[in-house]
Amino acid sequence: MVKTGKLRSGASQKLKRWKKGHSSDSNPQTSRYRQAARSRFFSRPSGNKSNLTVDALKLHNELQTGTLERGGDGDAMEEAAFTERTSGTFLSGLSDCSNLTFRKVQRYWESNSAAHKEICAVLAAVTEVIRSQGGKETETEYFAALMTTLEAVESSESLAAVAYLLNLVMKRVPAAVLIKKFSDTAKAFMEVMSKQAGTDSVSAVRWILSCLATLLRKQDLSVWGYPSTLQVYHGLLSFTVHAKPKVRKAAQQGVCSILRGSDCMFIDNAPSHHPAAVTTAKYCIKEMEQAGGNKEDTTTLHVLGLIKELINTFPLSSVKSCCETLLRVMTLSHVLVTAGAMQAFHKLFSSKPSSSSMSAELNAQIIMALYDYVPSENDLQPLLAWLTVMEKAHVHLSSLQSSLSLGHLPRLFAAAMSCLLSPHTQVVSAATQTLKTLINECVAPHMAEIGPVLPSTSTGNGLSVIKMFRVVEEGLSYRFHATWPFVLQILGCFYKAAGKQAHPIMIKSLQSLSDLRVTPSFPFCGELDLAMGAAVESMGPQVVLSAVPLQITGIDDDMEFPRSWLIPVIRDHVKNTQLSYFTSYFLPLASTLKQKGLCLSLVCTVCMIPLDCLLYFQLFDFTHILFFCFNVYEIVGFLSCVFDSAIQKKAYRVLEEMCGGERETCKKFVQGNLEQLKQVLLDNLKSASSPAKRPRLKCLIHIVKQLNEEHKDFLTALLPEVIICTKEVSIGARKNAYSLLVEIGNAFIQFSGNSKEAINEYLGHVYIGLTGSVTMITCTVLALTRLVYQYKDTLDVSPLEQLLHNVCLLLSSRTREIVKACLAFIKVILFILDVKVLASHVSVIMEGITNMKEDMRRHCRMKLKSIFTKLVRKFGYELVKSMLPAEHHKVLANIRKVEARTKRRKLLSKDEEDESDKKRIIEDILAETDSDDSEDEGPKKGQKKPIKQKAKAWLKEGVSDDPLNFLDPKASQRVLATNPDLKKTAKVEHGFKVTSDGRLIIKEDDEDDGAKAVLFWCFMMLTTCYFRSAGGIGIHRPLGGRQESGSEYKSKVTYLNMTFH
What we know:
two-stranded antiparallel sheet, mainly alpha
């Protein structure tokens, strides 16, 4: 008899259950394990919901009766097709799709997203229909089938899936097909957009917009002359101000791709601007004018974002109209609108448009107009943006018309120098960088054309240079003493750029610098020495010493030698000077002082490319030359064996200076002796010593830059040596080796014209090193790592994937150097490859890491951990864990904990920065009704922080009671983006008056009371510091012993016995 009673806990859940109405059945029918077995085959994802929906069946039926006709094999073909279909699975058309366009879709089948499942279902159905009709699964067949499907489906989910697949395939469809089917395709797209525009579904409209942009980008110039084409384009353009961000972004990207990358813009005799550029500019202007001054309308901001990307593609007339509109909307004094307009101007000037888009006159007019929008010195971000825009505008104007640019520079110099008085360090630094850039790019290149600049110059560009330097020289006044380091940088830059031609107007500033240098405790001696060194480099020591004499004659001199600091400055910076001045001034001075060390240390630098070398040696006495040669003849044999490598290194350094010289003489020398240099460098390939590798490689870098396509064999012969040098002991040699590899790659690109083919050819030569010795393999992998990183934007994905496979095979090597180089390559691959492309190669990387030897894994454990961390961040912990064996799971668990801890800390720090929302009390609610003082008093306790997009502007009031004139051009400077009163904090009242320099004032009549107060304060500090109660953690914790009786009544603090007299 069976024992009755309750089942043990948990057993009831394991009992088999009957469905309702089937309790008379002997056993319930379960198929859990069979379903699990089916899911292991490449079928639908596990789950209760089937993807074989009514829409999918309708799609399948429509495709079978659509425009695609079956092959002509009759019933036999149809029967074979159905026989093959019965042996497949639900996603057979997806799993074995032969078209590489849909490779990224094949990994969606395991996704839980409904949109991804719909995409997989549509692709599977379309593939099956194409196969059933005898198709070859080309892009054109998929395009035709998907267009038929687009007209058949009705639900938004299916439309989005079809549009997504169309977006993928249309990029690979031949242009002739899209040109021929333009009318029908555009009509179908416009109908779908008109239906879906009013719905809440975003995906379908988003992908249809991308398809429409691809279709328009492939059209010929003749098609753009039809009104229907412009009508379709306007349909795309209208979505650029859509309220939904994804739709708006897709439309703006589509418009940008059409105006920038249409096929008709890359043909022979292509127009300077796209035919739709003018209509796009008119649309943007119209939208901004219709939005008007409504600050709540975001249309202006959306249009500004579009103009920022497209303004450099407009013709000159459209650019002028857009700039006038931008200047008008800036008068609204809306912070975000002004920032967007400044970004548009910055993009316009920094892209360096051609004269067909930006003339010198228009550039100058924009510069003059922007002076009416100078922000306040206390407005940090707008002022930084204004300085950057003005810098780019003047640099571009200098490239168009240098004389016009020089005429506008003095006013900008004055405005930028006034920014040095700002209390914000960022503004001072930005103004300094702006002035240095203007000097280097707008003044220095044209000084040779300007010629000598004298104080008496009153016209022309020389007068502009004088005005600019006078403004900078004013920075040495005491008013700028807080920013003297920045002023000295600007002066040094000016000396270096214009000192050779304009040194007569700079004498006074050199004397001022000398006076500052001898000032006691002058804190900026280093910056001043650099500025004076720049003057020595450009003007020469003779000009500098005539303005600032050394005051050393050897007769009754000041024994402290106050200007002796000039000698090291001259020694470190002199170049291109005259030997005659050295012999006429410094040598007699050294003889007089009988201290030749300091003065004679100038010999090395004075002899660096002297200007009067030939003239000076004509006056030299050669009668004693032979005598000196016989004296050194006997030791030449000994020196040849001792200093052979050193002499070789010095010889390469001389050759480096000759090959890298910027003078025309050096360039002519290299071109005239190029064949001889090549022969010498190739013959000495194996005999070069290790110390000589660094200058030798630098010499080769200079030579490679001057080669043409005829010398490709020379570059190929150099490659093995350059690759081996990537493992040199010298850091400088390794850097030069990597730089030379990049220069050779640039040379291949220059020879070919097609960058992709050139890089593939170049990498083919480098691949040969993978078949060499262990050292050669290691160096080749390192070289490939550098080249892959350098040309990551040029390389195709297919050769990169093949290279990754080969490197992963090398991970099983027993040589540590090879393995470490391969891991470095993998880290670079993880950094440069897109996640979608990298996803298909994770298994290859994991397989290579798994095949590593045990001692290799232990030796490279830190590099492996870094790679695992990057993979976990990109693909998740579970996926990486499933691909690695159990011995790596402990490291992965540690990585997950570290990442979780880091994430928690970031969230915690973010929460601490944000103020917690507290319950508002009745006083706060009543305070909100006071609208007059709400902005002045700042945010109250309990109020929520304002949203960043809702930026406010503050109006700076004047000191007088006169009303503010809003028609004044400078009224915009009183509109601030930041509240100037927020940073003001109440000063602590300590009871004492303070002088202007910060000293306390204590009156004499309160001397006794003040002394007692000070004594009492010291007494309280002592009792607090030395006799505090116990407490804390660790060794400072209170002991848990038994308390003495009456201890609770004792005093907790013991005071010192002090007596006040």
